[in-house]
Amino acid sequence: METLNDRSRPTSKASEAPSEARPDPPRILEFGLMPLVTNAFPERTTFLDTRLRWADVRTRAPRSGSLAARVLRLARRVAGIGHACLVQDYDIVVARCVGPVNSAGRAMPVHAALSLLGLAFRGLVLFAARGPRVRLAILDVTDHLTIHPRDRSFLRRCDLFFKRELAANPWNTLETVLPRGACAGHARQDPACLALRAKLRPFALGIEAAALKPPVPASARRYDLFYAGSAQGIAFRETLAGILPRLATRGWRIHAPTHRLSREAFADAIARSRFCLSPGGVGWDCYRHYEVAALGSVPIFDTRPLTGIEPFLHGREGFYLDPQEDLERALDSLLRTDDAAVDRMTAAAQALVTRVYTFDALARYVIAETLALGPAPRPAPSAPPEEALIPAEAGHRHPS
């Protein structure tokens, strides 16, 4: 499979002719707080870190130097970002959405400042992606089923909008950003609304590849079921609090600590459990889903109301619980799964996470979907078409 870092290897003089030479893969500009595409394609991606802060973002320690030196350093970073956007030496722009202001409980001046920062960021990204030549891919990793109105201009101007909490009915995701006066019933017949719908793609939080560990055989695991989490007013989680003690009285090895575990103890509990409950929180998509599979256990989810890139299949890579059913009886039935089946599901879940939900896989998915649109229109008619750098994975089970 050809990747972003592959280069053409002509095998004859004819293939070396300028008219038949294959162009380099597209160049990418990524904005944001944390690199995603940059880590997957470091040789072809320029990352613009928009965390313009006085303190180190990792250690939170103040940066050394006098005030003048720090101002000069910050000015140079801003000038570098502006120059990169002005030169436009790239073919694809990847950026995170703006999302909510997240200023609850803060003073109005703070709210206004954060709003202006979001406005400036949005303007910078749209400036970087100006013109017909550059593709724009927006990543929305917020917890909301709907797209925030502050990202309406991103949705209109982008080529693809990757939504983490993409509703099973995508029109629900578009409810807050439809054109003025459009209702859901009208939107399904309006060409402008259909064009917005066509830009949506599912996305996920994902997990780092280094988190995947060889699984412990099911027969050697210490617990049948592990769950750690607070209810936080979520009905499904509140129901679990009464069910788990009753399952323990039936003889199942239930590990449901009420105190907060250390990072090491939490990972060990997952690895030593045949099954792990992983209900959704504010949003359904959760880092724990992929963490459970990566550490070698079988995840049990609540009902999935989302469109996924390639969802965990019930009975193959995990189990889903319907809150409308008798949850205690359903869990008791699932816990009776034999060890051989648990081992098969563990292997299948890890294979799915490796193929689809590692950060590297998600980055390749974003670029593959963007390139599947075809080359962006070129201002010069003689310009050669872009090379399709990564073929879309045939295994992805999602609507295009």
Rg (CA only)? 24 Å
Mean pLDDT: 85
What oligomeric state do the depicted chains represent? single chain
Query: Based on helices, strands and strand pairing, what is the structural class?
Result: alpha/beta
**Pattern of helices and strands:** EHEHEHEHEHHHEEHEHEHEEHHH
Largest sheet: 6 strands, parallel
Low-confidence stretches: 1-22, 381-395
Largest sheet, spatial ordering of strands? 2-1-3-4-5-6
Number of domains: 2
Structure explained in plain terms:
The protein starts with 27 loop residues before the first strand and ends in a 29-residue tail after the last helix. The N terminus is likely disordered. It is built from 13 helices and 11 strands. Helix 8 packs across helix 11. The protein folds into 2 domains: 206 residues, no CATH class; 149 residues, Glycogen Phosphorylase B (Rossmann fold), CATH 3.40.50.
